[in-house]
Amino acid sequence: MKIKLKAAIIILVGRPLLFKKTLRLFYKNWNKKYNYPIYVHTFGEVFNNSQISYFKKKYKNIYFENIYPAIPNHIKKKELFYYRFYNNFAYQSFNPQRLGYLHMCNFASNIASFGKTGCLGIKLKKYDYLLRIDDDSWFRKNITFDFFNKLKKYPMATARLGKTQNSKIHLTREKLFVFLKKFIKKNKIKVAHNELRLVLKSGDEKKLFNLPYTMGNFDLYNMRYFKSEKFSKFINAVNAYGGIYKYRWADYDLINLYLYLYHKDPIANLNLSEKIYKSSHIKSKKILHTEHKIFFGFSLPGSVNNIIFTIYKRLMRLFYKINLLKRNKVY
After folding, report:
1. DSSP state, 211?
2. Does position 151 have pLDDT exceeding 80, yes or no?
3. Would you kindly state where each structural domain of the chain is located, as residue ranges?
4. Using alpha carbons only, what angle is made at residue 129 by residues 123 and 132, rounded to the nearest 5 degrees?
């Protein structure tokens, strides 16, 4: 008889209607066989008591935890990613209503910061392995093996390992290359991963995007590698730098790069095809995230919020372009 691993699943939920479908398919196509505990985290109260009772009755081994993230004290409001009007992605696709996304990146990056503000619940500290999926992760067909067994010999695993195809990805990795080089120099690290070592040697930060990365929405963690002093030092440096909130550094970027510093081949590729698993339900974009609509410290209706901030950022973008022209003017 196989001994069940000390493992759990994490889901951060912002879209409760979509989550219901996600959970049903996750159990139908995988977890009904293994019944690993699921820890549902939400930013504030997303589910009422009646909804929680429904899920607990239907799935038994499921737990709910409200967490309350906050912008770190050392980061000023105007330093947040959506105030970087020179950045085309921030300008076109971000506003204060997407603060929840930055909180999500912080939550997922600080994978071993149990019980800290905006992070995983303290109860998850007891587990040896964790799987993190999204509230719209789409398990399309039956999967017949235990994911966690594939993780025993690796620090991390993912549904599919691949290179980023998004042409705008560099706009969410501002100063990451510089940070990484400084961290390596300060801690006298001999980079283990061959491709990362060559990228750093080249000095071309765009080549950083050609490394293989995990999916982010289906990632498994062998926690002994993340409950370590090395990871603690790395993620503390990231937090102090403010890269997540200032530049929208993503969890998979940070965690993958950390592993590449110390390991030659740290990530197991489960190679699940899109017929088996897709990163998002087909209707997920139609269901809005439950986010706080905050503008300059007070609440406003979402539509008013967007209009005011759109006017403000267009003015700031104009001033930025004017100043840029002045600096580049030849006298």
Report:
1. S
2. yes
3. 7-286, 298-328
4. 80
Q: Which residues pair with 218 in a beta bridge?
A: 133
Q: What is the dihedral of CA 44, 137, 10, 76, to 10 degrees?
A: -50
Q: What is the pLDDT of residue 325?
A: 53
Angle between helices 194-202 and 176-187 (to 10 degrees): 110
Question: Do residues 151 and 244 make contact, with C-beta atoms less than 8 angstroms apart?
Answer: no
The residue type found at 143 is: I
The dihedral through the CA atoms of 144, 148, 152, 158 has a sign that is positive
User: Measuring CA to CA, how many Å separate 83 from each of 18, 277, 321?
Assistant: 30, 35, 15
Give the whole-angstrom CA distance, residue 103 versus residue 252: 14
91-126 confidence digits (pLDDT tens): 888 888 889 999 999 999 999 999 999 999 999 999
CB neighbour list of residue 59: distance below 8 Å, 6 or more residues apart = 23, 27, 38
Q: In the predicted model, what is the mean pLDDT of the chain?
A: 88
pLDDT at 238: 98
Instruction: Identify the architecture of domain 7-286 in CATH.
Output: Alpha-Beta Complex (3.90)
Under DSSP, the state recorded for 83 is: G
Q: What is the pLDDT of residue 316?
A: 63
